[in-house]
Amino acid sequence: MEKNQYEGLSHILKEKNIKYDESMKKHTTMQVGGTCDCLVLPESIEEIQKVVSYAKENHIPYYVIGNGSNLLVKDEGIRGLVIKIGPKFSSVAVEDEKIIASSGVGTPRVAQVAKKHALTGLEFACGIPGTVGGCVRMNAGAYGGEMKDVVESVTYLDSDGNIKKILNKDMEFDYRHSVFGNHKDWIILSVTFALKKGDVEEISKLMESNALARRTKQPLEYPNFGSVFKRPTGYFVGKLVQDSGLRGYQIGGAQVSQKHTGFIINTGNATCQDVLDLIRYVQDTVYEKFNVKLQTEVEIIGGEKS
Hints:
With 306 residues, this protein is α+β, with helices and mostly antiparallel strands. It has helices at residues 45-57, 107-116, 132-137, 179-182, 200-217, 237-243, 272-290; strands at 18-23, 35-40, 62-65, 71-73, 78-84, 92-95, 98-102, 119-120, 141-142, 145-146, 151-157, 163-167, 187-194, 196-197, 224-227, 250-251, 254-256, 263-266, 299-301. It folds into 3 domains: 3-86, Uridine Diphospho-n-acetylenolpyruvylglucosamine Reductase, domain 2; 88-202, 2-Layer Sandwich (Uridine Diphospho-n-acetylenolpyruvylglucosamine Reductase, domain 3); 219-301, Uridine Diphospho-n-acetylenolpyruvylglucosamine Reductase, domain 1. Strand 17 and strand 18 (263-266) form a beta hairpin. The radius of gyration is 20 Å and the shape is globular. It starts with 17 loop residues before the first strand and ends in a 5-residue tail after the last strand.
């Protein structure tokens, strides 16, 4: 890493918000991966705009992340700049039956705010570990609900740094996909959710039921990035993996969860390569036994040698 490439960032951000050779293990829920050259934590939209402009002017590749709950960083790390949309982007406002949430706020917190105001529609999201920005970007879902069902509009920065708004009908929502998957340089700033009035007690019961199912069926005691594979039409991933005899199968520190075979966990010392090798082994085994191709949900970045 040539540190002088990043010296100009000190004129944009506070020094405490610039971290060099930062381990990405700290910034992903799977807790694997190498270091990035530089990670920044902007505190305002203007700072994001200036950082992106700086990266482009200096031909520095950049990546935008949230909570890292659906992210796998390769062991070689990331050559370039990582922009983390963090705690400074965590405001939540309620206007009648709408909630406007900044992209860095945790989705479960937004679900709790909805419950407090007797707004129904976000109960499915009460346990999803991602930020609002990340969840909308991949149209995250659980327990029969998806982001596409409740998102009214998204405010974002386009590739030229302009603030724009896009409506649900133009979001190209599909299974674990949105228009932001096609435009990786668009940065989600905030999301407006359109909800409906409901009964607080009923909302609470449904959220408690979802949370209980999550605790009892998912390996939350281990680092993981949620469901590894997209659900193939007509099949359940966990059953395919289990029926392939892979429950508990392990490569290095990466293991197919004993509790939920749709998950891969970090038993404590996994490398990204362990995880990638296990993903490929599961894909090959399931295809061999059932002629079903499993596609990954997780986003894989990095891998450039220093």
